[in-house]
Task: structure prediction
Amino acid sequence: MAQAANHYTREALNQRAQKLAPTLRERAQATSDGRRVPAQTIGDLWDADLFNLLKPQKFGGPEVRVDVAFGVASELARGDGSAGWVWTVMGVHDLFMALFPEEAQHEYWATDRTLSASSFAPSGKIEPAPGGVKLSGKWSFCSGVDNAQWMILAAFAGMISTEPPIPDIRYLLVPMSDIKVIDDWNVMGLRGTGSKSVVVDGAFVPAHRMVANDDLVNGKAPGGNIHASPLYRAPVWAVFPFCITSPAAGIARGAFDAYVEEMRARQSAFDHAPLSRKPNIQLRVAEAGALIDAAELLYRRSLTETIDIIMAGGTLSMELRLRNRRDQGYSVVMLKRAAELLLGAEGGKGLYDSGHVQRAFRDLHALAGHIVGGWDMPALNYGSVLLGGPPSDPFF
Result:
């Protein structure tokens, strides 16, 4: 048992991720060109025992602390942002699945090396059917769908009679045999994530493969009665947005690593002087490095404090949850700025598709385009509540 515990410490997990990062960097261009994470990379992640970190102990998983697990995303993203993104969004589904009814969990983890993709926007519709529902719709941004055995899809089921009424959103677990994948992922950034669209046409979903968003938000998901950890009774959106921003610092730090490596070797085309001796290069290295460090500290502070409170059985205040979302969004703002500083000082050589810095620049802009990865929504939410108004964003 001691050996198993040591295998899943923060240090051991980060070391395994760091060991794999150079390989991911070597494959980054091919991953981008292929518009999906290759099966070889998925296999390497399994072989390094980096998947299933959040799988609950009841089903044989290590149930690693969320903040420890999300740190792996940053280390992987130093090699390739797309690989780090797919790892984190597929890996967090082990936590999400632990919130479903127990029968669904048994089905999901019935085989080894199970992965799922998802789309949490309620783009589908459900119709009642004996023993469950029939699901139809089209969903976009399904990261890692080419590597998945299951899909977790959101659907609209009417309105909940509250004051004011709120949408009744359900999340449904659907096998890939009921899924049609649409190859439409032709994008600027995070190209290698394979975040394609999917279509479902009237597939039957049994009732036990469905969970209500209202229960997830209020910490009353079925999984809370199955697993001992207080994590499974925490408000889901107080935790999940950290997943989306978890690769961001690693993406920027990978760009920083590549930039420093390049500038130590390059010479000016005019006077053949080392670029490393140019004051403008030195200034950009200093500012970009400070931005990356600050962003990472901001993100880690919020995540660690949040998980500490949850694991101690405490209650997360609205003020903390709103500040967390602010911190997540602003950390990405700083990281985008860091990548922009580095790319702007690379000159024409930085424009090539093969360049690591420009790929990171594009990946960070794509990450910020996610509904919980950007700045405006959490900033407005934080400002509204702090000044006495109502929340303006449900993801906190």
Notes: The chain is about 45% helix and 15% strand. The chain has a mean pLDDT of 95. The CA atoms of residues 322 and 382 lie 5 Å apart.
